[in-house]
Amino acid sequence: MATSAxxxxxxxxRNFSSGPCAKRPGWSLEALDNAFLGRxxxxxxxxxxxxxxxxxTKALLGLPAGYQCAxxxxxxxxxxxxxxxxxxxxxxxDALAWESFGEGWVTDVSNQLKLKDLRLLKAEYGKLPDLRQxxxxxxxxFTWNGTTSGVRVPNGNWIAxxxxxxxxxxxxxxxxxxxxxxxxxxxxxxxxxxxxxSEAAHGMLILSPRAIERLESYTPPWPLPKxxxxxxxxxxxxxxxxxxxxxxxxxxxxxxxxxxxxxARSIGGLAALQARADAxxxxxxxxxxxxxxxxPLAVDPATRSNTSVCLKVVDSAVSSxxxxxxxxxxxxxxxxxxxxxxxxxxxxxRDAPPHLRIWTGSTIEASDLAILTxxxxxxxxxxxxxxxxxx
Length: 391
What we know:
Blueprint: H1 44-61, E1 68-73, H2 75-87, E2 93-97, H3 100-112, E3 118-122, E4 139-143, E5 145-146, E6 151-152, E7 167-170, E8 187-191, H4 192-195, E9 202-207, H5 209-217, E10 231-232, E11 235-236, H6 251-266, H7 270-289, E12 294-296, E13 308-313, H8 316-319, H9 323-339, E14 356-359, H10 366-390
Parallel strand pairs: 2-3, 2-4, 4-7, 7-8
Antiparallel strand pairs: 1-9, 5-6, 8-9, 10-11, 12-13, 13-14
Helix pairs in contact: 1-6, 7-10, 9-10
């Protein structure tokens, strides 16, 4: 028998996926009524919308003078790949990996670009590599916030201000939720569907003046596909960063992103977005601190994500099982809550150790997370009762 009562109240928004993430509070299809559809994105009005999305992004993030921002194909992945293929190879690379996405960048640098001077600084899930070992005379690749482990870098203090190399950060789950010192970042990427819960397929690429200088002074030895090219005859293609996208974007998605940016401004801008993410994550971390059956996957509290909260089951009846059985148990909790329409998409990433992963970014409401905790307790009890019955 289950030992926890079935909760009476359900979250208003039951979507806790870590990508695509929940839409902003109050969102409806009416937000897209003014989308610029059936016309060329290169028409005056279409280009104006694209430029507006870029300029509003720069303003909301507070990018320094000289930093450029562009809309590029293929989400955050496309943006980061574009940056690696166009700028890496000029010097050695230090690549940091502590979860699956960081490991993906390492794989591409090693197996696709085949860089010979590559140094890997790796840590197991739940921990960071030793940041003191990073050599900033080299280019440095890292994820600011690892969604598949719930581990983020605590700040930018470890990044050298007088670095000779460039810093490349995949910031897709951090950019509107965690303070990013832009003077320490040369290349940053993110996607609309994760950062603010907008629609998928488009990436954002942010470049510092130092990154632009690299583009103009260095030509990689490998061929570059059209969608990766940011220079022409050795000169930076500034028009791409003014709304003249490399390929055709979805103007429906652009309208949705503009709506998300307008909502962000309406609640108080970047500081308010960060505060909401902090408050949301604290609901789960405070609950986990007094809940005996689970704990954060991130070992050091200073590195715990405020957007992708990863919680592992530590109850001995589950943690003593083989890994695949533990994974099945977590999937069972997810399935129970999905069937009850109480929460969706909360199982951890397939490449990570078994855990629950719950998005707590700014588009989530803290009140829904508080309700969710009761459902998690109930679903755990149900799944554990089923485990005991099967035994």
